[in-house]
Hints:
Blueprint: H1 3-33, H2 40-44, H3 47-62, H4 68-92, H5 102-123, E1 131-132, E2 140-143, E3 146-149, H6 150-172, H7 174-184, H8 186-191, H9 196-222, E4 224-225, H10 229-244, H11 249-269, H12 273-291
Amino acid sequence: MSELFLQQLLNWITLGSIYALIAVGFSLLFGVLNIIHFSHGDVSLLAPFLALSVISAIGSALGDAGSLGTFLLALLVAIAITGVIGVLLDLVVIQRFRQAPAMMALVATVALGIVLRELIRHLFPNGSNPHAFPRLVEGDVTIAGFTIPLFSVMVIVVSVLAVCALFFMLNNTRLGLHIKAVSQDRDAARLMAINPGRIFRATFFVASAIGAIGGLFFSSYAGMARFDFSIDVGLIGFSAAVVGGLGSMPGAIIGSLLIAGLDTLVQATVPNGASYRLVFVFLLVIGVLVFRPSGLMGRSLVEKV
């Protein structure tokens, strides 16, 4: 196995892990609410700016903006605040479209994403410009003679743990069982003394917090935070969820790995591939939807008229 092949393999799995953290949020929200929350990517990419703001605030107050403890605290605060923002957006905007036609919710959340991007652009200092974002961890580790960046190892391990924790929560906790009950039949859930409103808020918090981890990883992977990162990353995360089958957590992961694999392959083999990678990615999305509209692991829904 050559060093170049290993590097591309690491890039694929690292990028796929980042996309998966955002894609599972899309699928989770769709599975529970049956609404496409198109601004989920924009919510997720708020986290890097929130982390930079916390670092700056701590530096101004305590003069200790460069320590590891400050950085870790900023990341945790950013994840928590992003989760809360997801809940607030549901309370203020999205909940009003739960019984509305799907197109209304889609248009509303697209508009909401634009609002979030423009708020970052105008309220964050020099928000139109890229802001340097540090690597979450530096250094390399040598395994079997190959040098592997610790950042890639951390992204893969944390992503696997986060997804496993989500699956455990959905399948083995009271909250997870309530989420499944509400996603299957809200009226029956109410008869079982389950408050759908509380479940919706909990779902938004979980999905937004997991997406925030993906947003932080992506900015650290790119080395910068930009207000418009959420356009590409959010669209790719949504596309990965669609390719895998909206509402399917395993499908979102498979879709993310497929898209990240094609992205990495194009950049490695096609001349000027970085400029054309999205062309190939979305050709893949179109191809999957042409031959399997419900996604690779999605289920076709039959509506009685």
